[in-house]
Design goal:
Layout (H helix, E strand, L loop, with lengths): L6 E5 L1 H10 L6 H10 L4 E5 L9 H10 L4 E5 L3 H10 L3 E4 L19 H13 L3 E6 L3 H10 L3 E5 L1 H8 L3 H20 L3 E5 L7 H5 L4 E6 L1 H10 L1 H15 L3
Parallel strand pairs: 1-2, 1-8, 2-3, 3-4, 4-5, 5-6, 6-7, 7-8
Helix pairs in contact: 2-3, 4-5, 5-6, 7-8, 10-11
The structure holds pyridoxine-5'-phosphate.
The site of pyridoxine-5'-phosphate has 19 residues, from strand 8 and helix 10.
């Protein structure tokens, strides 16, 4: 029997990375987001980083005004970001760890160690009607803590699985995939909605898309890179096709 349809959230951060490399007004991430919606994205993801290295506050204003699908607003657990999220009230908020020196979001959030603070941090976001997601590694301790603090969703970090694949460390890749498989089921059993993302490509997406508990994938960097060769809409359409194929649809 085919699995339920998997939602695809297209992350448009790196359209802004290209724009900001020259300090120009183009390419416009809002235009990319609208094109992604037409090409089959079920939602748009954008990460407003503390250092504004890619997405800007103005981009978030533009996305909120222009999108017809839900915005998944990625943010660090800071007072500044909480205020911005409460002002915009996006459909979803995904809490991610953020370090200034990192190239990208390198690990999952350490929820277990910061349970109390995070519980208080997400409460107003939930009250404002945002679906709160926590970006974590496939680790039972973190999943249990995410459930206890009242998150509705966890997003499992697929970065390690993708890195092992790219480096040809297939035993480690398979071990990480087994962990993701077990932890997706565990989180679902605790009543959490399960999403996944980071580093996914055409080569790595299908084993993750085939996990029955996973409801949404968030994919960005690879798609924006692939758009250079195919165009954004065909790049997204191919990802959609691979995801559907993995679900037996
Ligand atoms: N999910 C989360 C929580 C992320 O932080 C990111 C990167 O911003 C992604 C998914 C998308 O990762 P990538 O750009 O590597 O596809």
């Amino acid at each position: 029997m085919p699995l339920g349809k998997l939602r695809l959230g297209v992350n448009i951060d790196h359209v802004a990375t290209v724009r900001n490399a020259r300090g120009s007004a183009y390419p416009d991430p809002v235009r990319a987001a609208k094109l992604a919606e037409q090409a089959g994205a079920d939602g748009i993801t954008a990460h407003l980083r503390e250092d504004r290295r890619h997405i800007s506050d103005t981009d978030i204003d533009g996305l909120m005004a222009a999108l017809t699908t839900p915005l998944n607003f990625e943010m660090a657990a800071t007072a500044e970001m909480q205020a911005i999220a409460l002002r915009h009230r996006p459909h979803a908020v995904c809490i991610v760890p953020e370090k200034r020196e990192e190239r990208t979001t390198e690990g999952g959030l350490e929820v277990a160690r910061e349970e109390n603070r995070l519980a208080h941090f997400i409460a107003p976001l939930r009250e404002a009607g945002c679906r709160v997601s926590i970006f974590i590694a496939a680790d039972a301790r973190q999943i249990e803590a995410a459930a206890r603090i009242g998150a509705q969703v966890i997003e499992l970090h697929t970065g390690a699985y993708c890195d092992f694949h790219a480096e040809g460390h297939f035993d480690q890749r398979d071990a990480e995939l087994a962990r993701l498989t077990d932890m997706a089921a565990y989180a679902h059993g605790l009543g959490l909605e399960v999403h996944a993302g980071h580093g996914l490509t055409y080569d790595t997406v299908q084993p993750i898309a085939a996990l029955p508990e996973v409801m949404e994938l968030n994919i960005g960097h690879f798609l924006i890179g692939e758009a250079i060769f195919r165009g954004l809409a065909p790049a997204i359409a191919e990802m959609r096709r691979l995801m559907d194929e993995a679900r037996g649809r």
